[in-house]
Design a protein that fits this description.
This protein is an all-alpha fold. The protein has a domain of 30 residues. It is built from one helix and no strands.
């Protein structure tokens, strides 16, 4: 079995597409996790403000 330069370059190109695909997927996952953490922080802050408001009215 003879491996030609063209075959080798095609394999390298395929691996680069795989690398870029995984990179994009990880960026999307990390962005989503960041967005969720920001929303959680905002919700926690809002709950604390509501608790203070309820306690001040009592």
């Amino acid at each position: 079995m003879e491996v030609t330069l063209r075959d080798l370059l095609a394999e390298i190109r395929n691996l680069s597409f795989l690398f870029y695909g995984y990179t994009v997927i990880w960026i999307i996952i990390l962005g989503y996790a960041f967005t969720l953490s920001r929303r959680e922080q905002n919700l926690r802050r809002e709950v604390e403000e509501l608790k203070k408001e309820v306690n001040s009215k009592q």
